[in-house]
Amino acid sequence: MRASILALALFAAWAAGAGGALAQETAVTLSARPGASESFVFDRPADAPRAAVILLPGGEGMIGVHVAKGQAVIDRPGNFLIRSRARFVAHGLAIAALDSPSDETGMSESFRMGAAHASDIGAVADWLRAKTGVPVWLVGTSMGSISAASAAIRLGSRVDGVVLTSSVSASGRNSPAGGVLALDLGKIGIPVLVMAHANDACPSSPPGNAQTIAERLSGSHRVAVRFISGGGPPKGPVCEPFGFHGYVGVEDQAVAAIADFILAK
Predict the structure, then answer these.
(1) Residue 233: is the preceding peptide bond cis (ω within 30°)?
(2) Where is 153: in which H helix or E strand?
(3) What Å distances lie between residue 158 and 223, 227, 234, 262, CA to CA?
(4) Which of 4, 116, 236, 240 has the most neighbouring CB atoms within 10 Å?
C-alpha cells in the first residue's frame, strides 16, 4: 500500500510538469476472446505515427483503465512504461497502455506465459495495425517483459519487434519458473532490444542477465543490448517503479533508447 501511494504521489508530480500531453488519450476495450475483454489507453502523435507500441507493465499488470467524465483514466500510472507513455508519443509512436484482462485480478507468471494472454495482446496488435497502418512493437518491463517475450514467440509475424526492459529473469516469489529465461527465446524471429539499468538491485532482474537473454535470441536477425545508467535518487523498494529498476530520473534517456531502436536511428 505504501509503495502504491508513493507511486501515485510521484506520478502526480511528474504529470504536473507534463502539460497537456495526455489530453488526447482514449480508452478502448476489445472483446479479445470468449468471456474476457482487454482494455487499454490509446494515444498517437499529432502527425502520422512512425510505429506503434503496446506497453506491458510489470507487477500484476493492473493499471485500472476506465473512463471518467468523458476522459480516459489510469488509476495506477506509476509503472515506468505507463508514466512515460507521453514520452513515446513525443518520439512519433502511437501507444496502447495495456491493462490486465477482465478475467484476471492480477497476472501471474504462468498467465503471462500462456496462450490466453498472447491472444489478448494479439487482438490489441491487430487493432493498432488497423488503426495506424504502421509496424507494431511489444514493449515490456519487469514482469511485463515475460508477457512481451512470450507473446512474441506465440504471435510471430503479427508483431514487428519486441523490447524487454528490466526483465524478470531469475526465480523468485513471483517468478517461480525463472521469468524470461524460462522461455524458448530462440523462437523469436523479430528484432529485439534488451535493456537494463546498470544499477538495478532487484534480485528478480539482474542487469547481467540482459546479455544472457540476448545470447539466447538465436532466431532474431537483429538483437541489441543497452544499459542505462544514472538517474535517481531511488525511492521505495528496489523492485518498485521508482527505483533504478524503473529508470527513475532517466526516463527520457530510456525512452529515447527504445524509440531509436524501433525507428532504427
Answers:
(1) yes
(2) helix 143-155
(3) 19, 28, 37, 16
(4) 240
Q: What is the mean pLDDT of the chain?
A: 92
Strands 161-165 and 36-43: unpaired
DSSP state of 117: H
In the chain, where the domains are located: 2-15+24-262
Rounded percentage of the chain residues whose pLDDT exceeds 70: 91
The stretches of 17-74 forming alpha helices (DSSP H) are none
Report the alpha-carbon distance of residue 3 to residue 78 in Å, rounded.
Answer: 10
Which CATH number does the domain 2-15+24-262 belong to among 3.40.50.2300, 3.40.50.1820, 3.30.930.10, 1.20.1730.10? 3.40.50.1820
| Span 181-213, pLDDT tens digits | 999 999 999 999 999 999 999 999 999 999 999
More confident residue, 61 or 9: 61
Q: How far apart are the first and last CA of the chain?
A: 41
Predicted pLDDT of residue 23:
56
Of 226, 229, 175, 182, nearest to 203 by C-alpha is 175
More confident residue, 224 or 69: 224
pLDDT in tens, 164-178: 999 999 999 999 999
Nearest to 66 by CA among 119, 104, 25: 25
pTM beyond cutoff 0.85: yes
**Rounded to 5 degrees, what are φ and ψ at 187?**
-85, -5
Cα→Cα distances 62→38, 39, 95, 144, 185, Å:
11, 10, 17, 11, 26
Distance CA 107, CA 112 (A): 6
